[in-house]
Every structure is written in C-alpha cells, then in structure tokens.
UniProtKB/TrEMBL annotation:
Biological process according to GO: glucose metabolic process; pentose-phosphate shunt, oxidative branch
Record's protein name: Glucose-6-phosphate 1-dehydrogenase
Domain Glucose-6-phosphate dehydrogenase NAD-binding: 39-198
Gene3D superfamilies: Dihydrodipicolinate Reductase, domain 2 (3.30.360.10), NAD(P)-binding Rossmann-like Domain (3.40.50.720)
InterPro entries registered for this protein in UniProt: G6P_DH, G6P_DH_C, G6P_DH_NAD-bd, NAD(P)-bd_dom_sf
Family to which the UniProt record says this protein belongs: Belongs to the glucose-6-phosphate dehydrogenase family.
GO molecular function per UniProt: glucose-6-phosphate dehydrogenase activity; NADP binding
SUPFAM superfamilies hit by this protein: Glyceraldehyde-3-phosphate dehydrogenase-like, C-terminal domain (SSF55347), NAD(P)-binding Rossmann-fold domains (SSF51735)
A Pfam short name: G6PD_C
Gene source species: Hevea brasiliensis
Catalytic reaction list: D-glucose 6-phosphate + NADP(+) = 6-phospho-D-glucono-1,5-lactone + NADPH + H(+)
E.C. numbers: 1.1.1.49
Record function comment: Catalyzes the rate-limiting step of the oxidative pentose-phosphate pathway, which represents a route for the dissimilation of carbohydrates besides glycolysis.
Domain called Glucose-6-phosphate dehydrogenase C-terminal: residue spans: 200-500
Length: 507
C-alpha cells in the first residue's frame, strides 16, 4: 500500500504517537522497533511521528536507542544514507517506565506525549506486545489516562486472543468496555505476508483460476507450517497454548478463510471480513478422529544441546515433565457450503521437524477423467496430479505442477513446474509482514486484522476439540527431533484418500 501525495501531506500535518508496550529482557520482541525504523527509512511514516517504549523495566532513552540499534536488520544497514536516517529516527524514540495497571503512570506518559504534541492535533497508536493477562489493565489505563484528546486512538493487540471460545468472548467483552471495534486491531503477522496478500489477487483477478476454485476440480487443500526448531526459550508460553492454539486456530485458519471465501462485494475491509466470517461459520467443528497430535522427543544424539543433541520437549526446564501439550498437529476440516462440500482441508503444523521453516498452501486437483496417458503408460495417478503451490516462506513463490513430455525419442511423462519466484521477478526486498500491518493500522486499513465475530467463529471450530483433548488427557504420539513428524499423520491422509504434499520442495 502506497501513500498518495494527498494522504502523505495530510498525515504530515498531524502528529502520530506510537506507544509500544513491551516486556524488555535485553532484546526487543520480534524486532518491532526495527519495523518502525524500516518504515521511517522508506518515508512511509508521517513526518511528525514520536515513538515511546513503555515497559515495567527501568530504562533511559539512550538505553532504548542502543537496544534498537542492536536489533536492526540488514535491510536497514544496507540502505543509502542509513546513518543519517537512523539518527533522525532515534531522536524520535523515547522510553517511559511504568506498570501496565497504573493509571498514574499512564498519566505521566500522557504528559510526556503532550509535551511533544505542543497542543497540535495528534493521533495515538498503542501496540500491546505484553502478556495477555495485562491487556485489559493496559487498555483501561490507556483509555482513561493517555488517549488522544483531538485525534484517533487505536490499539494493536498481539495474540493469543484467549485460550478458548469462552475466554476469547470474555476478553472481547472487556476490551469493548473501553474501545469500539474500530479501535481494536488484532494482529496476526502472517496475514501481512506478501503471498497471503497476493492470494486474493490470484483468485479474483485471474480468469483461469475462477472456474477451478471449487469442489468440481479441487481434490484437497493442504495448509502446512513447519519449523526445524523446538520450543526453546518459549517453553513457558508454548506449554500453556500448544501448536493448535498457537498456529492452526490462529494463523492457518485465517489463511484458509481467505482461500475459501466467496467474492466480496468490494475490496473494502468490512466486505472482505464479512466473507471470511461466513466461511469460518460454515466450517464443521473439528472431530477428534480427524486429528493427530504429536510431541517431539530428543533426537537420539545426547540428552541436551551441550551433548551435541537436541533435548525432548519435556526436557525443557520451562516445561512440565509430564506435559501433554502437542508440538505437532494435523487436522482435517470440512466446509459445509455448496462450493466446498466434501473437500478435505488439511492442516499440518509442527516444531522440531526435518524441514527448514516452511509455510505454504498446496492445492491438489482431481485426476483427469479417463486419462489416456495413464491407460497407456501406467502413470502414478497421485504423483501425476496437478498441484498449485503458494509458498509463503521462505523464498516466496507460486508454482504449478503440470505433466509434460520428457524431451527425446519415445514417450515418457514427468512433472514440470511453471513457477513464479518473487526474487527473480523483483530485486527489491519484499515488505516485512509486521511493517505492512503496522502501516495498515496507522492508515486505519482493517482488512488484514481479525474482527471479533471472525475470532468467535474461529474458536468455535477448535474449542470442542481442545476441550476433549484436555479432558480425556490424550497422549501425543512421540516423534524424534528433526524427523518428519509422527507416523499417525500418514494414516490420517490415507483415511481421506489423499497424499501429503512434499512440503518444502523447491520448484
């Protein structure tokens, strides 16, 4: 999204204060200040911007600025006039220490902001990168003691958005005591990925895909998220949520909604979110028999990293030794509407797998009816199935697997790739997901943020399953650190007569 000149001039006349509420422990969470600095270097932020880090830790302005410099990415370091730009940016960064539940401390923050604003019109954006247990206190204090008096006030809320449908509704209700829905920006950073943004363009501006996008031609759709590392350093958080809440119910289900939704009336945020909400409400609650859960054990090369091996999940000192929290899950979802009736949507997400970090969508098409070449040459139908792959990370790409004749005498078929590699198409760095979403929040663009009814519908898909897993104390199937995951996932695929895509393969 690009500022037009009118919008840029308009915003430059208004002050913007960005308030980052952070838990500072020597580093900045997810490099969020780096994203602000990148936007600043790209001249995408209003000229009159002030950034305040608010934390319980005692820290001076200079200490915060040094921390920002330490967390800058190479995207910043390699830019022309980097030093000059960064000096300008750092002068706009300040720190304020206080408790998240103290209206007095927020009043002190408000006084500092007013000094910078000097009575001019000002907008304020609060980014809550803090424990969920502190959300409501922080929002209450921000509303009562540090809201903008003559502009807008918005709040970005980091996941997790509750622990189940009940706690999510409770959190939403509490937030709405102090904010309107239009002020709440629930951030899911994967929704800002370049390929996720491109999904709607692919669907709705290319005629060739529109007739194919239904049960008539699509056999199954796979949403895959793989990490080659475990829960290191996040064990305390992860053990409370697990892979289903952390990745599947949140990230993958949102991408599924974009993939499967009907054509919206327009590209306006509410029209898009209306269609996403319809799809989410059409998904059957996931059944236990359609799920495989796993937990990684050590890799067999020692009992810890100091022994040149990777420890089991339950060997993490921040994790309970008898924890049943899944670090891997595969689930089959079905959408009860005329477009997708009977099509399995499979989701797989796991930590400590053999593959590098991968997130992708794999669309497997139906077999060609009465395929002449299969009859004559005995082609493996599963391996010869056309497949459209949208690789979100790493190295964004879209490629289509098609059957093709191998050059030479005789007749032999093989799969070929028609591919669009983003790196070869555009030498510029693709925008960072956080940077894109931060810019959207500043502009008031809500289409990539989660609305409360979407959130409620998403929890409705998985809450019954999560409750059953915990009440029945379902023991996850163990798999080795660095393996392809538990064997049960192959039985789940066989149950629905499908083949898992070779995720992470290069086009």
């Amino acid at each position: 999204m690009v500022f037009n000149s009118w919008k840029q001039r308009k915003q430059s006349l208004v002050l913007l204060s960005v308030l980052l509420l952070l838990e500072l422990q020597g580093t900045l969470p997810d490099g969020k200040s780096s994203q602000h600095s990148l936007l600043f270097c790209e001249d995408r932020l209003p000229q009159n911007v002030t950034i305040f880090g608010y934390a319980r830790s005692k820290m001076t302005n200079e200490e915060l600025r040094n921390m920002i410099i330490m967390n800058l990415t190479c995207k910043i370091d390699k830019r022309q006039n980097c030093n000059e730009k960064m000096d300008q940016f750092l002068k706009k960064c300040f720190c304020h220490s206080g408790q998240y539940s103290s209206e007095k401390h927020f009043m002190e923050l408000d006084e500092k902001l007013k000094e910078k604003e000097s009575g001019r019109s000002s907008n304020r954006l609060f980014y809550l990168a803090i424990p969920p247990s502190m959300f409501i206190d922080a929002v209450r204090c921000a509303k009562r003691s540090a809201s903008s008096g003559n502009g807008w006030t918005r709040v970005i809320v980091e996941k997790p958005f509750g622990h189940d449908i009940t706690s999510s509704r409770e959190m939403t209700g509490c937030l709405k005591q102090y904010l309107t829905e239009d002020q709440i920006f629930r951030i899911n950073h994967h929704m800002g990925e370049e390929l996720v943004e491109n999904l709607l363009v692919l669907r709705f501006s290319n005629l060739i895909f529109q007739p194919l996008w239904s049960r008539n031609y699509i056999r199954n759709v796979q949403f895959i998220f793989s990490e080659d590392f475990g829960a290191e350093k996040r064990g305390r958080y992860f053990d409370n949520y697990g892979i289903i809440r952390d990745i599947i119910q949140n990230h993958l289900l949102q991408i599924l909604a974009l993939f499967a939704m009907e054509t919206p009336v327009s590209l306006a945020a509410e029209d898009i979110r209306n269609e996403k909400a319809k799809v989410l409400r059409s998904i059957r609650p996931v059944q236990l028999e359609d799920v495989v859960v796993g937990q990684y054990k050590d890799d067999g090369h020692g009992q810890g990293i100091t022994s040149h091996g990777h420890p089991a999940y339950t060997d993490d000192p921040t994790v309970s030794t008898n924890s049943l929290t899944p670090t891997f899950a595969a689930a089959t979802l079905f959408i009860n509407n005329s477009r997708w009736d009977g099509v399995p949507f499979l989701m797989i997400a796991g930590k400590a797998l053999h593959s590098k970090r991968v997130m992708e969508i794999r669309v497997q098409f139906r077999h060609v009816p009465g395929n002449l070449y299969n009859r004559n040459f005995g082609t493996d139908l599963d391996k010869a199935t056309n497949e459209l792959v949208l690789r979100v990370q790493p190295d964004e790409a879209i490629y289509l697997k098609i059957n093709n004749k191998v050059p030479g005498l005789g007749m032999r078929l093989d799969l070929s790739h028609l591919n669009l590699l983003y790196k070869s198409m555009n030498e510029r760095e693709t925008p960072d997901a956080y940077g894109r979403l931060l810019l959207d929040a500043i502009e008031g663009e809500r289409r990539l943020f989660i609305r409360s009814d979407e959130l409620d519908a998403a929890w409705g898909v998985f809450s019954p399953l999560l409750k059953e897993l915990e009440e029945k104390k379902i023991v996850p199937e163990l798999y080795s650190y660095g393996s392809s995951g538990p064997a049960g996932v192959h039985y789940l695929a066989a149950k629905h007569s499908i083949r898992w895509g070779e995720f992470g393969d290069d086009p």
